[in-house]
Design goal:
Nucleotidyltransferase, domain 5; seven-stranded mixed sheet; alpha/beta; 34 helices
Length: 913
């Protein structure tokens, strides 16, 4: 590539210090219109980048940075990527946060030359590529939505609109700014549009928490009056009333999305479905911290595999995987909707053959949603048409399979799968089984579909055979068996006969058909009108075939887009079936059960299990997961909706907390749950404070993050919420932490009155069960064996009397000296606690414990002052003593020893006797 640049485009149009070439002037003018994007400037078979763009792209892509000429006294940095493989480079740039403006050649270079030798090929930006406007498969995760969001505020009212340009899904919700964070956390958008000048620190922080960046756009894009007209133009309707009643702030948010599409796509808009207004409270509210703590769609390691989504995903299609993630991210609070989803899952659980047949068909179904979007914006190819064809074919087969499905939801899906036979037949007849990736490669249209295309292909591929056939016809007509049709670069195709035979062709009536062209010494050359026409057709056959294929492709594309709403409906139905069948698969595989969902405040789970942990144990071939019951039901006399869970670390407290929250998520997503039985009253909000993490970028310590998340729970949780809290107050001093945990537990019980699981190591809190009627103590069962602790992972009524921290530390591999010393400290503290009469430890206790003074390690011998004998020995050098001197030293040491302790002499005599 570097050699090509040095000898080709690098020299062509080079700069000098005193002048700017027309090509570079064109580049600078286009770049000035897109200062915040890398400019991919098309030059032949490469996209070239110059100046700072080249330096940034070369560093980001790890490609060579070269130069071409000079501009204003400095070298022009340059790098480039091949057009045929540019998508892989684009993907890397977009992932690193760049925006890319794609500048294409708008005319053939030959056309530019006709305007003058120094004329520059017309170029302009045809597309602005940003993280939220991607449509290509190479730039997207097939199993995730790629949301573009827009946030609008008008006089204190707020709304968020979100669109996946690759599928056309479009939603809008009126939402207060305080509730924006949880919605963004649920969507995890690629890009969020805000009005230029309207962003502030709090808004930017909320957007950053969702893993996105704010993109300021002109305020005109958020104008609600202009938005209505823009949206009506986008959907091709005279009024938006058919899609629902939208307020000004909702129109502003949706209009901003439409304006941004017009800006980035340069008029080639994707296929956008009518906007779906989302009702307030229609889904379970889950904030960013809870999503992170529960690892709903991303595990602690950042991967999908270790999350709830990874454990519950048995979908076999890209559309099904995207729908599954959407459902787990936003569990429904509509009982009828949940029941319909459960009915579909139950039907597949009951009929395993039906489930297997449907899943096999779904595996063969391509991603029609994204194929449709690419076709709509003009970036689709033959394989996108084939995806629609194959998807419709599988949809039709599935419709027959599900014709007698007992579940109403499956019957509705089956109805959406059929009714496109005419389009399916057209695509099936027009396309080859395996079309090429690019239309320019040719061969996408099936033989026999178009007579003109077949003829052009024959001329292109079988030119010699066609000429041979014409030669035989001409020889028979002239009566000259030796007549030949030949070709050279001067005359092209011609008929040649000997000089003697040529006289017949020069005479009437053959002279009217055979036109004389050249006379040689021994031969005459002729042509015919048919041969000249055939020659022209043969020479242009390849180009003509591609031109005809483009025309047929456009006809097919228009036919698909005319039926786009129905095709999109079929794609959605396929995804629905895939999710239901996937849920059924894991229900059978994991022995999950159908939960009972009602409008009460019940929460009774028998034999509940953690889906992610259980899956990991099975894969490792480890012991089975120990199931546990949980009853947080808040209705009725004697209800105890708050559980205080104590017990040692590693015993399973956090697992128990999380598994019950995940069971609620799965139940309201429409899935079966990992339990023997479950009855769950609708959970309208889920809150979790589990684990420890800091946020140093915003100056928050681990304890501050814990307190911020706890404050959000206490301020927002209502009676319909489910709250799980783990180790509140452990990040500060003992008295401070105990006080905070105590007050938090009381507030949840008395004020929030929500279903709560509260795990702690503050055993003093267990005494609250005597005063708080709705509080129940529970503990993780353990056993001690020969000084070690054995975790039973069972939740039992009662309170733990200790945390077994030293035993856990031993299991973790702390040095024996450390754990032994810790045991001494613990025993002393517990003894002091008993002397103080129980309760909080007295400050004076510390003063009574010599173990808190500077102490030597337990195994060390106390250091004493050396004796006279020891001092004399230390002075002596055994290697320097002669035998006589050594004997004298022994007598001297004995004398010193007797002087220090006369009793030694009697002992010596007794020993000698």
């Amino acid at each position: 590539m570097n050699q090509r640049r040095a000898s080709g485009s690098g020299a062509n149009g080079g700069e000098t210090d005193g002048a700017v070439t027309p090509m570079m002037a064109q580049y600078l003018e286009i770049k000035a219109r897109h200062p915040d994007a890398l400019l991919f400037y098309r030059m032949g078979d490469f996209y070239e980048l110059f100046f700072e763009d080249a330096a940034e792209a070369a560093a980001a892509l790890d490609i060579a940075l070269t130069k071409r000429g000079r501009h204003l006294g400095r070298d022009i940095a340059m790098c480039g990527v091949p057009v045929h493989s540019h998508e892989s480079y684009l993907a890397r740039l977009i992932r690193k946060g760049f925006r890319v403006a794609v500048c294409e050649q708008l005319e053939d270079p030959a056309a530019a030359k006709r305007r003058g030798a120094k004329s520059v090929v017309k170029r302009d930006v045809v597309r602005l590529i940003t993280p939220g406007t991607l449509t290509e498969d190479a730039l997207l995760d097939a199993r995730r939505h790629n949301w573009l969001c827009a946030w609008a505020e008008i006089r204190g009212d707020g709304a968020l609109a979100w669109l996946d340009a690759s599928t056309g899904d479009f939603h809008v919700a009126e939402v207060a700014r305080a509730a924006l964070g949880p919605l963004l956390a649920r969507l995890q958008p690629a890009e969020v549009l805000v009005a230029d000048g309207g962003e502030d620190a709090a808004l930017t922080e909320r957007i950053a928490e969702a893993g996105a960046a704010a993109t300021p756009v002109a305020r005109a894009g958020f104008d609600s009056d202009g938005a209505r007209a823009r949206l009506e133009r986008l959907f091709g309707v005279a009024a938006l009333d058919a899609y629902g009643g939208f307020g000004r702030v909702q129109l502003a948010a949706m209009g901003a999305v439409a304006a941004y599409l017009e800006l980035t796509q340069k008029g080639a808009l994707p296929l956008v479905r009518p906007p779906v207004p989302e009702a307030v409270g229609g889904t379970m509210a889950i904030d960013a911290g809870t999503r992170r703590n529960l690892e709903l769609t991303r595990g602690a390691d950042g991967t999908r595999e270790t999350s709830l989504l990874g454990a519950a995903d048995r979908t076999v299609s890209a559309g099904g995987a995207r729908l599954l993630e959407a459902r787990l991210s936003a569990p429904s609070t509509d009982r009828a909707e949940i029941a319909a989803r459960q009915e579909a899952v139950a039907a597949f659980v009951a009929d395993r053959r039906l489930s297997a047949a449907c899943r096999e068909a779904l595996r063969r179904a391509p991603d029609m949603e994204r194929a449709l979007s690419r076709l709509a914006v003009g970036r689709g190819g033959p394989r996108d048409l084939a995806a629609v064809r194959d998807g419709l074919a599988e949809a039709a087969r599935l419709a027959e399979t599900l014709a007698d499905a007992p579940a109403a939801a499956l019957a509705e899906a089956a109805a959406a799968l059929s009714g496109r036979e005419e389009l399916s037949a057209l695509l099936d007849a027009a396309l080859v089984a395996e079309p090429p990736a690019q239309l320019r490669d040719g061969g996408a249209v099936a033989p026999g579909h178009d007579d003109d295309l077949d003829a052009a292909r024959r001329l292109r591929d079988e030119g010699r055979g066609v000429i041979a056939g014409m030669q035989a016809d001409c020889a028979a007509e002239a009566g000259i068996p030796a007549l030949k049709i030949k070709h050279n670069n001067v005359l092209g195709y011609f008929i040649e006969v000997s000089a003697a035979q040529g006289e017949a062709l020069l005479s009437a009536p053959l002279s009217e058909r055979f036109i004389h062209r050249q006379t040689l010494a021994n031969a005459l050359r002729f042509t015919t009108v048919e041969l000249s026409d055939l020659e022209a057709r043969i020479l242009n056959a390849g180009g003509r075939a591609l031109e005809l294929e483009r025309g047929i492709f456009e006809t097919l594309r228009e036919a698909v887009l005319e039926a786009a709403p129905a095709v999109a409906g079929a794609a959605r139905a396929l995804a629905e079936i895939d999710v239901a069948a996937g849920f059924a698969e894991i229900a059978v595989e994991g022995d999950w059960t159908r939960p009972e969902i009602d409008a009460s405040r019940a929460f009774a789970v028998e034999g509940g299990r953690h889906p992610v942990v259980e899956r990991a144990l099975r894969r490792q071939g480890a012991a089975r997961f120990v199931p546990n019951d949980c009853d947080l039901s808040a209705d009725g006399a004697g209800a105890q909706p708050v559980w205080l869970l104590t017990g040692p670390n590693m015993a399973g407290k956090s697992t128990f907390l999380r598994q019950n929250a995940l069971i609620a998520v799965l139940a309201q997503a429409g899935a079966f749950v990992p339990a023997a039985r479950a009855r769950i009253g609708l959970v309208d909000a889920l809150f979790s404070r589990v684990g420890a993490a800091d946020d140093l970028a915003r100056g928050r310590s681990t304890f501050m993050v814990e307190m911020v998340e706890t404050a959000a729970i206490l301020n927002r949780a209502g009676p319909g919420a489910l709250v799980i809290l783990d180790e509140i107050g452990r990040g500060t001093a003992t008295y401070d932490g105990l006080s905070i945990a105590w007050a938090t537990l009381e507030h949840l019980h008395d004020v929030n009155r929500c279903r709560t699981l509260f795990a702690t190591h503050y055993h003093e809190l267990t005494a609250l069960s005597e005063r708080l009627a709705g509080l129940r103590n529970a503990t993780m069962a353990v056993r001690e064996w020969e000084g070690d602790v054995v975790f039973l992972h069972e939740v039992r009524p009662g309170a733990a009397d200790r945390s077994y921290g030293v035993q856990v530390a031993k299991l973790a591999g702390l040095p024996p000296a450390v754990t032994a010393r810790a045991r001494e400290v613990l025993d002393a503290l517990e003894e002091g606690d008993r002397r103080a009469g129980g309760g909080a430890r007295a400050a004076a206790l510390i003063d009574d414990l010599p173990l808190f003074s500077a102490a030597a390690p337990p195994a060390a011998t106390p250091v004493a002052t050396p004796s006279a004998v020891e001092a004399r020995l230390a002075e002596a050098d055994p290697d320097a003593l002669s035998p006589r001197e050594a004997l004298e030293l022994v007598y001297e040491l004995r004398a010193r020893l007797l002087a220090a302790d006369p009793a030694c002499d009697g002992a010596d005599r007794a020993a000698a006797g």
